[in-house]
Amino acid sequence: MTMWVFGYGSLLWNPGFNPVESVLARLPGYHRSFCMWSIHHRGSEEKPGLVLALDAVEALQCNGLALAVHPDEESRVLEDLRERELVSSAYLERRLQVDLNDGRRVEAVTYVVDPVHGQYCGGMALEQQAHVIAHAHGGRGPNAEYLYNTAAHLHQLGIRDPDLDWLSDRVREIRA
Description:
GGCT-like, Hypothetical upf0131 protein ytfp, glutathione specific gamma-glutamylcyclotransferase activity, 5-stranded mixed beta barrel, 4 helices, GGCT-like_sf, EC 4.3.2.7, two-stranded antiparallel ribbon
């Protein structure tokens, strides 16, 4: 059985592997949002940034990309993803059912936020998110770069995310 990975943030533009297949997909019951403090990749402990996470919201769905892993690379890819995504235990690794745009339903490795973890910050106002993102910087670069890259790749895929569009515009204003 093929191992699939569900991408909704940086995995869209930097999966860390070459997928053998990429298909637009929907994950029911979750919402993409900047609901996790970043103290490593896009911020620091002194000045945390924000990263996207999947927050459980039963009535919503998250549109993203299902990425199929070559069978010979599954172990390495899973190890790399765990090192990258589970650095602070704020994400939980789940295998969830995603609906591919071509009609298939597959199980995908998916990283969702742990709502009881100290880095969880769901419900933050967009204006506050914009100010955090505009000023934070971490080991993988500026928080704003992460936002801009994700928003741009969502546009390229034809996925609308009005919150990310608003945040991109607002962060550019703040940083100008």
